[in-house]
Design a protein that fits this description.
Radius of gyration: 31 Å
Mean pLDDT: 81
Number of strands: 19
């Protein structure tokens, strides 16, 4: 498997060392080191090293195939909401037709009753219902599209009006999925700039995401700095621990606590930030300081979650394949109510299944937000699945019911607001149309109205309901 290639089947590494990007499958933002004897799973991306592997499972039994199977089985469990108007119109028109023909047959006065029967049939025409109600949902879908959200069906828009629980993936959904140095903690007798410069020089020959974040941090603080390969030699990657390089004739180590112990460094201090990836820096066995590197949280995420709660969401939950400390720190920062960490795709499905069972059948709905191939089964199983359309995987977009085209989480509470307004307007149309038609039908049966009144009860009511539905085109796009 060459650098940059996707791992096709679950396998075991025979020779070679590399970093495997598992974010699309597990949600873990830090690439995982793989060497001889380690297992690698299908769907992950090989990093900068070549690997020779031995397949341990047939393609149909591999991880990606199991995920696709989960998508299919989850789709079978998803219930379909029948539209009220479709059921109503199925019985409404035949009943009214029979009622219009009974009086002339049994009561005589054919001329008078035939006139009333014709008026009866004009009034009872369900155009106002079968046009205005779907038009309200079309208007809601159009309003959502103007706000940058693709809704794949009116039933999903209707479900968004009754959201009780919002469940979300972390990496790529609540966070940006890229790294940034958030804090530089130098040891005594060394400046923050010198610490960052030594770490960046040591990492300058590496393509690891953490190495790129360190070099970017130095470039931002010192615009004149550029990598100087001539000052660096003997770069050695230690899988799962970090990197050691010779910088200006001195041995510089950048990596984990295990690497510090391996280099004989004893004075380093553990960092307290559970959400950060911690990089210790040492030179010739002397501890220089610590760099805290975090996956950046989307700036709009906290505001979006708060807006969802204002729209009636009772509970927010985060599911992630990342480690517990990272998940809990991000959840605390964003105001997420609950977090479940270290989950594989099948574990996420099981968690959502248990939450759906907890909601019961009283009209409360569960929404799941995700972006990776590992989220596809959960997106399908949830009452409404929402995918990131800009950076999300094709599998997630295909499985989702709603797609946010620009990945802005603030679109979700906006869609909830549009959904509530859509349902409210559709109910107004139903009540108004039925009330007017019922009143005019009674007046016609009593001989107190004429054909012009009947025409208003049909065409006039339909036009008024259509105008009412058009109010959906005027909505705010975000919170």
């Amino acid at each position: 498997i060459r650098p940059g290639e996707k791992i096709p089947v679950d396998a075991e590494v025979l020779t070679g060392e590399s970093l495997i990007a598992t974010a699309a499958l597990t949600g873990e933002s830090v690439p995982r080191a793989a060497g001889p004897g380690d297992a690698v799973v299908s769907g992950c991306i090989n990093g900068d090293g070549s690997l020779t592997v031995k397949a341990t499972k047939a393609f149909e039994d591999s991880t990606v195939s199991k995920i696709l199977e989960l998508v299919e089985t989850a789709a079978e469990k998803k219930s379909k909401t029948e539209r009220f108007i479709t059921r109503f119109a199925r019985y409404y028109t035949p009943v009214v037709l029979v009622l219009a023909l009974i009086p002339p047959i049994f009561l005589g006065d054919w001329r008078g009753w035939i006139y009333r029967a014709c008026a009866f049939l004009v009034i009872s025409c369900p155009c106002a219902l079968v046009i205005s109600v779907p038009l309200a949902f079309f208007g809601g879908i159009g309003a959502a599209s103007r706000a940058g959200v693709l809704v794949k069906g009116s039933n999903f828009l209707e479900l968004m009006a009754d959201v009780d629980t919002v469940v979300s993936d972390k990496t790529g959904t609540l966070t940006k999925g890229n790294f940034r140095v958030t804090e530089v903690i130098p040891a005594e007798r060394i400046s923050a700039g010198e610490l960052l410069r030594k770490a960046a020089l040591a990492e300058s020959m590496s393509t690891h995401p953490i190495a790129r974040s360190i070099m970017q941090a130095l470039a931002e603080s010192d615009g004149a700095w550029t990598p100087d390969p001539g000052r660096v030699s003997g770069t050695e990657n230690i899988p799962g621990q970090g990197l050691v390089a010779t910088v200006d004739g001195r041995r510089v180590a950048v990596g984990s606590a295990e690497l510090m112990k391996r280099e004989g460094v004893e004075a380093f201090e553990e960092a307290a930030d559970g959400a950060a990836t911690v990089c210790f820096v040492a030179e010739d066995g002397r501890f220089l300081g610590t760099l805290l590197i975090r996956d950046e949280v989307k700036p709009e995420a906290a505001r979006a979650i708060a807006a969802m709660k204002r729209e009636g969401v009772k509970s927010t939950v985060m599911l992630t394949g990342d480690r517990k400390g990272v998940g809990e720190a991000v959840a605390l920062e964003l105001g997420v109510d609950r977090v479940h960490s270290g989950l594989l795709p099948q574990d996420k499905v099981a968690k959502v299944e248990s939450m759906l069972d907890g909601l019961g059948g009283d009209g409360r709905r569960l929404v799941f937000i995700g972006d990776g191939i590992n989220d596809a089964p959960v997106l399908t199983r949830a009452d409404v699945g929402i995918a990131m359309g800009s950076m999300g995987s094709d599998a997630a977009i295909e499985a989702a019911d709603i797609v946010i085209m620009d990945d802005d989480l603030r679109r979700i509470p906006a869609v909830m607001r549009i959904a509530k307004k859509t349902v409210r307007i559709s109910k107004q149309n139903i009540v108004f149309a039925l009330a007017v038609k019922t009143a005019v039908l009674i007046l016609t049966a009593l001989g107190l109205s004429n054909m012009w009144t009947a025409v208003f009860a049909d065409v006039g009511v339909a036009v008024l309901c259509i105008l009412n539905s058009m109010r959906l085109l005027a909505v705010r796009k975000t919170v």
